[in-house]
Specification:
Number of domains: 1
Strand content: 5-15%
CATH superfamily: Histone deacetylase domain
Strand order of the largest sheet: 4-1-5-10-9-6-7-8
CATH architecture: 3-Layer(aba) Sandwich
Distance between the termini: 13 Å
Shape: globular
CATH class: Alpha Beta
Largest sheet: 8 strands, parallel
Order of helices and strands: EEEHEHHHHEHEHEEHEHEH
CATH topology: Arginase, Chain A
Radius of gyration: 18 Å
Bound molecules: 5-[(3-aminopropyl)amino]pentane-1-thiol, zinc ion
Length: 342
Amino acid sequence: MQIIHSPRHLGHSGHVELMNGRVVPAFEKPERVAMILRAVGERQLGPFVDPTAHGLDPVLKVHDEAFIRFLSTAWQQWTADGRDFPALPSFWKAPGMRAIEPDNIDGKLGHFSFDAGCCIVAGTWDAVQAGADIALTGVDLIADGQPNAFALCRPPGHHAHAGTMGGYCFVNNAAVAAQSFLDRGAARVAVLDVDYHHGNGTQSIFYDRPDVLVCNIHADPMQEFPYFLGYADEAGQGPGEGFNANFPLPWGADFEGWGAALEAACVLVADYAPDALIVSLGVDTYKDDPISQFRLDSPDYLKMGARIAKLGLPTLVVMEGGYAVEAIGINVANTLEGLLQG
Ligand SMILES: NCCCNCCCCCS
Ligand SMILES: [Zn+2]
């Protein structure tokens, strides 16, 4: 399996987040990538590949131009009046207020975000661009005949909407990849999001489209972030009706319950018969994840990978969440190994 990654993710360092009412060092930290690289290297799961540059056109196929312009200029605008510390949104619009982009950078930060988990520092935008290139390079490899690839993206992307960042996510790498598969001739693409948190961004981007099936297995949003999307009754709308499936699970879910949801999601994917499968791989389902409440253990990720392999589809694995840094490498490597051994 080709493992695509870039050291440019390191530019997204020193960032913070607002957690439990306090500004703390971000849980989405650079060490996550080092631990994954070490684990997949030790297992010799595949060659490491550098991403090729794809520019912003593929990103602009799923993201709004004003949002991407904001991401590319936010740090300059934030520091223009002397602030040399990480940028966080603080002000958001309530229903009934106007969805207008202010001139003021603090207003822009709120206009283009849905939480205070998307911190911008000097190297964030470069890291985000590299993440999109990593996912797109994975598409290239699979479109050119590879059976699978692993896009080791950082920062993650599945919470990012077409015009909104949040949940540590800026550009939706999985959504960019799905659109790229379609642009290269795929008729149908399935996205299976196994991150602990609902991939609200990916769902939202494809919600009214039948050419991308989005399946999410995640913590019940009645209890857990992102709270305001990810309910079981969200089945798609208009032409997309029937092409979105959510499998919310209660806190404390272990692989017995989680695996049953995976089975149901895999049946939907098989019936959809996509030309390619994208797995949004978050391993924050792990029992010791610091911000999550599921109970999966490391051997379960071997079973997860093996079940996905049984679909027999060209598969692009896109890295999303997972914050138990000491175990993230083992859990990602187990998922990939399960996928490869199928
Ligand atoms: N108490 C819930 C805080 C959630 N904070 C954002 C989590 C983003 C996960 C990305 S996979
Ligand atoms: Zn997550």
